[in-house]
Amino acid sequence: MKRANRLSRSRDFDAVYRQGRSVSSRFLVLYWFGQEEPAEPRFGMSVPRSVGNAVARNKLKRQLRELWRARLERVPTGRDYVLIVRPGVAEAVATNGFEWLGERIDEVLSMTKAAA
């Protein structure tokens, strides 16, 4: 993912958590917040230890980055997003496949449009 599309600073994550809005599903929570100056959408993720060991978490992060990159054109500009993964996702992806995870991402993204 390009640097312009990544959230990397702690203060950016904090701003999204504190001032942003959120939607959630069984496996994912998505926070979003409008940027001060409209620009390309930026994305950050949080995959807690409760999701699995380091190998499982890193694999899941790679998959999420790939799915996000594929959806960048459809995501509204001028927003920062933080995706939080809930426990059980790694097992569900192993059972249902990579496409299933993409459907879950689309699900929470569609909820942001309805909530906006």
What this model shows, in words?
The protein has 116 residues and is α+β, with helices and mostly antiparallel strands. The chain has a single domain (3-111), classed as Ribosomal Protein S5, domain 2 (2-Layer Sandwich). It contains 4 helices and 4 strands. A 4-stranded mixed beta sheet has the order 1-2-4-3, with helices on both faces. The mean pLDDT is 90.
Q: TL;DR?
A:
This protein is α+β, with helices and mostly antiparallel strands. The protein is built from 4 helices and 4 strands.
Q: What is the secondary structure topology, with strand pairs?
A:
Layout lengths: L9 H10 L1 E4 L3 E7 L7 E5 L7 H18 L7 E7 L3 H8 L1 H18 L1
Parallel strand pairs: 3-4
Antiparallel strand pairs: 1-2, 2-4
Helix pairs in contact: 2-4, 3-4
CATH class: Alpha Beta
- Widest beta sheet: strand line-up: 1-2-4-3
How far the N terminus sits from the C terminus, by CA atoms, comes to: 26 Å
Shape: globular
How large is the radius of gyration?
Answer: 13 Å
Strand content: 15-25%
What is the count of structural domains?
1
What's the mean pLDDT score? 90
CATH architecture: 2-Layer Sandwich
**Number of strand elements:** 4
Helical content (DSSP H or I, runs of 4+): 40-55%
> Do you know the CATH topology?
Ribosomal Protein S5, domain 2
Q: What sequence of helices (H) and strands (E) makes up the elements?
A: HEEEHEHH
